[in-house]
Write a structure and sequence with these properties.
heterodimer, A: mainly alpha, 48% helix, B: alpha/beta, eleven-stranded mixed beta sheet, two-stranded antiparallel sheet, 16 helices
């Protein structure tokens, strides 16, 4: 079959309308959720400013 | 034998009560009954009681009396005490202050409870706490199965947390001492706000076996008492190595005041800014007076500043990593939504998104924090600072409210010492030192790891010169 521009437009519209093609609705985040995530972001930003020589090991030890 | 226990006894130290028991001024059964009555009657007034253990306490008290009659004495014989409800007592609910765990029962006592039992102490109740020890970051004092901890000095003010019931019960004379726990401030804060003497031991000195874990590398169990000496007596019993606690330091503690170094041999580091610009104006006079008392003990004083690290961010990251792992099932199952505090719920949920590399970064920076404090303790033996910069806040205030006094610029002082001290595993002793706005305020001594005897020695000396630790809240029975 020849694929006309009209056919392509129809196929495109159908694809967009198909179930699963819609974007999932964004779950609304509460103020407390935002505050918790903001705190974690702030923590990460503050840790990123600390000078950390490559040789520094974590403050725990594994023993066999 | 007395049928009535005088009111003074409810506010007496371990040594004072022990003397009276051995002199047969009253029996252990009479004492236990009186404290149990008081705990059951007054504990709920302050939302301080999780569960009365009257029946088993009565049985233990009878055993204590039998032994006293035979002249068999144990270190804490007949002394009534309570434990924060994150410590397991077999056969009874251990709720962790949280609705999802309200019906939880363990079949073995926490090791610290076993040790106190062997020492003859009488467990009379489980004490209220902030849900899950507040690890997710709670916004309001009401973050608890039992409601907000109400301060015995003023019920419109918070008792502090997360060991809220432990502070309440000790301050109000409902127990002679209590056990609490600290991950970041949960012994020192209720001690300061309720006007009692609290000891946060060195990390690993006291076994965590049978205690709710919030953060494996930060959690510590310690006593809230009527005096520094009592803290020493209790720590001597509960400390010790435990191969079943991976964090155990494998060491015990002997309370040896006779071998403590003289105050004149000790150097105390402090920051003037803590007692002036950083402190709430209502508390500055009491903090300065407390500083003067410490100086008068003959110690050497040296001005210091806390090493420069983002302590709250480091501790928050470590806590999120460990707490998220510990409570992963609670969070993923959705039962986390049953908690009382929405900020806490959000914090717990967010913790699952912490990248492993962030946790490890925080733990690497923590190594540097430990090194920095080792360097600081080359020049000083102890640090001295206000336990909390202001007295207890009103019960309805959110805990993240912007302070009335803006943080000063300039010297860091020792601000951040609570998260810093916990990150480095350091011991600390909170001592009541006065009243601001009619509410207790306190100073803290922070020491090197395993140096609790120095803290207690200075604490005892401070308390021999002051009587703040003997004051009683206005309780009508």
């Amino acid at each position: 079959m020849d694929v006309t521009r009209r056919t392509l437009a129809t196929l495109f519209a159908a694809a967009v309308a198909a179930p699963g093609a819609e974007a999932a609705p964004q779950a609304s985040e509460s103020d407390d959720d935002k505050a918790a995530r903001e705190l974690m972001r702030n923590n990460a930003q503050q840790l990123a400013k600390v000078s950390l020589p490559m040789a520094t090991e974590p403050a725990f030890r594994f023993r066999a | 034998m007395a049928n009535h226990i005088p009111d003074d006894v409810f506010f007496s130290t371990i040594t004072e009560i022990t003397t009276k028991l051995r002199a047969k001024e009253f029996s252990a059964v009479e004492l236990t009954r009186a404290f149990s009555d008081r705990l059951e009657r007054l504990g709920p007034r302050y939302n301080g009681l999780a569960l009365s253990l009257r029946e088993q306490a009565h049985r233990k008290a009878r055993e204590a009396d039998d032994e006293l009659k035979r002249g068999r004495y144990r270190p804490l014989q007949g002394i009534p005490y309570g434990v924060k409800d994150l410590l397991a007592v077999h056969g009874h609910p251990t709720t962790w202050g949280a609705k999802p765990y309200a019906g939880q029962v363990f079949d073995e006592d926490a090791l610290v409870v076993q040790k106190l039992d062997k020492a003859g102490a009488i467990l009379i109740g489980k004490l209220a706490m902030v849900e899950l020890a507040g690890g997710g970051g709670y916004r309001f004092p009401a973050a608890s199965l039992t409601g907000p901890g109400l301060n015995p000095w003023d019920r419109t003010r918070w008792s502090g947390g997360s060991s809220s019931g432990s502070g309440i019960a000790t301050a109000a004379g409902l127990v002679t001492f209590a056990l609490g726990s600290e991950t970041s401030g949960s012994i020192l804060t209720p001690s300061a706000f309720c006007g009692v003497t609290g000891l946060r031991p060195t990390y690993g000195l006291v076994s965590r076996r049978g205690a709710m874990a919030l953060s494996w590398t930060l959690d510590k169990i310690g006593p809230l008492c009527r005096s520094a000496e009592d803290c020493g007596l209790v720590l001597q019993v509960i400390a010790g190595g435990d191969i079943r606690d991976p964090g155990s330091a494998g060491r015990g503690f002997s309370y040896v005041p006779q071998f403590a170094r003289k105050p004149s041999d000790l150097t105390v580091g402090y920051a003037p800014a803590d007692f002036e610009e950083w402190a709430d104006p209502s508390a500055r006079t009491d903090f300065k007076n407390a500083l003067a008392v410490v100086k008068s003990l003959g110690v050497q004083m040296k001005e210091v500043e806390i090493p420069d690290f983002p302590y709250a961010a480091i501790l928050g990251t470590v806590l999120n990593g460990e707490m998220g792992s510990i409570f992963e099932e609670l969070i993923r199952s959705g039962k986390v939504d049953e908690l009382a505090d929405k900020r806490q719920i959000a914090g717990l949920k967010a913790s699952l998104d912490l990248p492993a590399v962030e946790y490890l970064k925080a733990m690497r920076i923590r190594s540097r924090v430990q090194d920095a404090f080792r360097e600081l303790f080359v020049d000083v033996d102890l640090l001295l600072t206000p336990s909390r910069l202001a007295p207890a806040p009103p019960i309805g205030d959110p805990l993240d409210r912007t302070p009335a006094v803006a943080a000063p610029t300039g010297s860091r002082g020792l601000s951040g010492i609570i998260p810093a001290g916990n990150l480095a595993g350091l011991p600390a002793l909170s001592l009541p030192c006065g009243f601001a706005d009619k509410m207790p305020v306190a100073i803290s001594l922070v020491g090197r790891p395993m140096n609790e005897n120095h803290l207690i020695a200075i604490g005892r000396a401070f308390q021999s010169q002051t009587d703040w630790h003997r004051r009683r809240p206005p309780i009508t029975t």
